[in-house]
Amino acid sequence: MSREELKLAGDTPRTLAPGSTIGMLGGGQLGRMMAQAGSAMGYRFVALDPAPDAPCGQVAPQIIAAYNDRDAARQLAQRSDVITYEFENVDAGVAALLAEESYVPQGSALLYTTQHRLREKAAIRAAGVPVAPYRKVGSLAELEGAAAELGLPCVLKTATGGYDGKGQAVIRQAEELEAAFRQLVPDSSAVILPELVLEKFISFQCEISVIAARSASGEVKSFPPAENIHVNNILHLSIVPARVPEEIQQRACRLAETLIDGLNAVGLLAVEMFVTEDGELFVNELAPRPHNSGHYTMDACVTSQFEQHVRAICNLPLGDTSLLTPVVMVNVLGQHLDGAVERFCRADEEANRLGIAPKLHIYGKTESKTGRKMGHINLLCKDTGDGLSWVEQTNLWRN
């Protein structure tokens, strides 16, 4: 089928065989790993990203332009048989343009929902999945009223933007309300104030996430839940199998599958959840794309999250999501990069002693900064405790 015929066909699900070209909005590490997985299957890739040295551009052709450049978006559409994205904050106008001029099985509706926390939470509740109690906040007075209703502690977040802990403030005492509001709304005299959401703080035992996939024809599968540990609001470790009862793992997978089906999503949906001491699950956030907590699948599952995403948007049968081995994924930030690379250039006696196999993945970013994700290591092991011991013994992650 020609591209013109494909455009006229609208959003009708279609199967795109290897040899087709996948266009990507975004050329970061997620796009890079998707291109690597999809290229092995025979797909071609082209990415749109403003950075000349974007990680994905090192392994696939790249259109160097701003994300809101409509001419560049049209060029991407002309060169692609199907278009996907590797991050959520895609310009809405460009997303709509691409949906009109190319085949975008993910559509723009899910982007619209997940770009805004209030819309996202409403959609989660509409799907019958629990979220932490929350209130919309538009002023300091509304914040004070919402805090009185929900009770403290609470977390105040911007409704749009924010990642890795940015755009949020934890409030533990009433005296902290005004400071938290000023932190997120530095100019309260502006004509239009940013929307905020106040969430009740959930006392949780641990945080887990499930990566679910749904193909264009509606097939749904999920990967085993990962137990996630954050340091300074940045994901540090993902532990699989998660250290929670099997019944909770199964329930988490069902929730993720219910959500991705209820949202009529195509591709991947990362569902982050809190697990309480009583075994309750509350969904915290969604991400309609490959996710950092799913990187363990690259070495530890029959199918990686990146191959699964390609399969889903191209309407191939979804791959087997079975876990082949216990695994601990540890992020390599800028301050860890030199030490991690140096360690992989020599024999690792500690890994040999513990019987684990470290798999290093470096993203190809040209500038290393403290706190910036530069890569990750998947530690394949007989027991996740051995992987955690390796992380502790290396001393790389103490800063």
* DSSP summary: helix tally: 14
Do you know the CATH topology of the largest domain?
Answer: D-amino Acid Aminotransferase, Chain A, domain 1
Could you give the distance between the termini? 54 Å
Label the CATH architecture of the largest domain.
Answer: 2-Layer Sandwich
CATH class membership of the largest domain? Alpha Beta
Helix content: 25-40%
SS-derived structural category? alpha+beta
**Mass-distribution shape:** globular
Folded structure, characterized:
This protein is of the alpha+beta class and 399 residues long. The protein folds into three domains: 3-104, Rossmann fold (3-Layer(aba) Sandwich), CATH 3.40.50; 133-200, Dna Ligase, domain 1 (2-Layer Sandwich), CATH 3.30.1490; 204-394, D-amino Acid Aminotransferase, Chain A, domain 1 (2-Layer Sandwich), CATH 3.30.470. 32% of the residues lie in helices and 25% in strands. The chain contains 14 helices and 17 strands. It has helices spanning 3-8, 29-40, 70-79, 92-101, 109-114, 117-126, 140-150, 177-184, 246-262, 297-300, 305-313, 337-343, 349-354, 384-394, and strands at 21-25, 44-49, 62-64, 82-85, 134-137, 154-158, 168-171, 196-200, 204-214, 220-222, 226-231, 234-240, 267-276, 281-287, 327-333, 357-362, 373-380. The strands form three sheets. Strands 9, 10, 11, 12, 13, 14, 15, 16 and 17 form a nine-stranded antiparallel beta sheet that branches. A hairpin with a 5-residue loop joins strand 9 and strand 10. The longest helix is centred in the middle third of the chain and has 17 residues, at 246-262. The chain starts with a helix and ends in a 5-residue tail after the last helix. The model is unreliable at 1-10 (pLDDT under 50).
